[in-house]
Amino acid sequence: MSALFEPLTLRDVRLRNRVGISPMCMYACVDGLANDWHLVHLGSRAVGGAGLVIVEASAVEPRGRIASEDLGIWSDAHAQALAPIAAFMARHGAQPAIQVAHAGRKGSTNPPWRGDRSLTTAEGAWTTIAPSAEPFDPPGGTVDQVPAAMTEDDIRAVIAAFAAAARRADQAGFTVLEVHAAHGYLLHEFLSPLANRRDDRWGGSFDGRARLVLEVVRAVRGVWPDAKPLLVRFSAVDWLPGGWTLEDSVALARRLKAEGVDMIDASSGWVVPGEAPPFGPGWQVPLAARIRRDAAIPTAAVGAISDPAQAEAIVAEGHADLALIATASLHDPYWPFHAARALGALDRLPLPPSYDYVLRPPARNP
Ligand SMILES: Cc1cc2nc3c(=O)[nH]c(=O)nc-3n(C[C@H](O)[C@H](O)[C@H](O)COP(=O)(O)O)c2cc1C
Q1: Measuring CA to CA, which residue among 184, 187, 196 is closest to residue 162?
Q2: Rounded to an integer, what distance in angstroms lies between the CA atom of residue 289 and that of residue 301?
Q3: Using the 8-state DSSP alphabet, how is residue 109 labeled?
Q4: Closest by CA position to 176, among listed 86, 88, 47
Q5: What are the catalytic residues?
Q6: Distance from Cα 318 to the centre of ligand 1, integer Å
Q7: Which atom of ligand 1 is nearest to the CA of 22?
Q8: Taking the domains of the chain in order of start, what are their residue ranges?
Q9: Residue 328 Cβ contacting ligand 1 at under 6 Å
């Protein structure tokens, strides 16, 4: 009996198993609109058997994109482009999820294959926003544009943009929403003392730095249906002295739970250069386990999860409720199906009939 292939119910939404596809920017849009690339990429992973497929970081406003090729959800046209993709994923048994995001000071860059460097004016650079007017990289570094320190009005507008994005995600047919507060993007920049130098009510103490993410979640929960689960991904540690700690994460997870968040997606790092994370198989799993235990909230584990037995142990041993895979799912969109076969759980995971009658043993391929 595989724990990984047990269903998971969050609010009124049932995931057929505990394998999720982690959000992955594709840098494949024009004007932030989803297209046939997204349908094939996300659709394949739904057909491949995942219980949950999370659409990449989707910008809540144009300047919240990392690169101009990023996906957006800042207008109804963006939601309409996403709707058939969400419907396709749902039709093939995966719960369609989307991550709503704002890149903050790490916006206005080229896609990573062009060196992830800041856009030049000739390339259409825009002014980024952040808690404080400090760039991610020092001058001459890869992402060195100086952001504008946000005013109170800017902060209110960003909160409203997250809520509007959540409403559109609901209308587009997504059943699960994830707020992106990790990886050094805007909400993480507010959380981390390494990026937030404010001395007003949006900075300083833990309460001040956590205020924006909590207000965003409150606004989002206010429009996101009660029946649908809400996830928050945050960086559970900054991996640098003076940065965000795992104790901070437990405290934040408790607050988020009280605001109606159903699961913490525990990632880490990327808020300033120079960190030294302990990379290795399942390296972030202990973060998800600690938050799950001490804040009593379901968690998703992510990071170098590639082996079915490893994913099975993460769930079976109670480290997390969901195993998210990213890179492994680029190697193999059918990772969940192959994992089910390896774990003797194929009976739990029907593929679409067009494939199933051929692939399910005993092979009936004429
Ligand atoms: C191509 C690519 C794009 C990514 N884009 C996002 C993103 O949009 N949002 C996010 O939270 N994480 C993003 N990530 C991080 C992954 O979701 C995941 O946390 C990370 O890759 C670790 O998992 P892995 O070891 O299975 O790859 C991205 C990773 C990759 C490889």
Answers
A1: 187
A2: 8
A3: B
A4: 86
A5: 185
A6: 23
A7: 17
A8: 8-359
A9: yes
The answer, yes or no, to whether residue 139 has pLDDT greater than 90, is no
Mean pLDDT on 108-115: 90
The two three-digit tokens of residue 279, written as one number: 């990379």
> Rounded CA gap, 236 and 192, in Å?
10
The amino acid sitting at 81 is A
* Residue type at 167 in one-letter notation: R
Report which residue type is found at 304: A
**Residue with CA nearest ligand 1 atom 14:** 24
Q: Does ligand 1 have an atom closer than 6 angstroms to the CB of 268? A: no
DSSP conformational letter for 319: S
SS3 state of residue 96: strand
Nearest atom of ligand 1 to the alpha carbon of 56: 8
3-state secondary structure of 226: coil
What is the mean predicted confidence (pLDDT) over 311-338? 98
Name the DSSP letter for residue 175: S
Q: SS3 sequence, 327-349?
A: HHHHHCCCHHHHHHHHCCCHHHC
Ligand 1 centre to CA of 324 (Å) is: 10
The pLDDT of residue 357 is above 90? no
Residue 362: both structure tokens together: 């005993």
Ligand 1 binding pocket includes 106 (Cβ within 6 Å): no
Q: Residue 209 is encoded by which pair of tokens?
A: 């730095």
DSSP line for 255-294: HHHHTT--EEEEE---SSTT-----STTTTHHHHHHHHHH
Q: Which amino acid is at 116?
A: D
pLDDT mean over 147-173: 98
Identify the pLDDT of residue 366.
52
Pocket perturbation via mutation, ligand 1, pick of 25, 55, 271 by most ligand atoms within 8 A of CB? 25
Q: Evaluate: CB of 267 within 6 angstroms of ligand 1.
A: yes
Residue 250 has phi, psi (to 5 degrees) of -65, -45
361 burial level (CB within 10 Å; 0-12, 13-18, 19+): exposed
Beta-carbon contacts of 60 under 8 Å, excluding residues fewer than 6 positions away, are: 72, 73, 74, 100, 101, 102, 158, 161, 162, 164, 165
Selected from 2.30.130.10, 3.30.470.20, 3.20.20.70, 3.30.200.20, the CATH number assigned to the domain covering 8-359 reads: 3.20.20.70
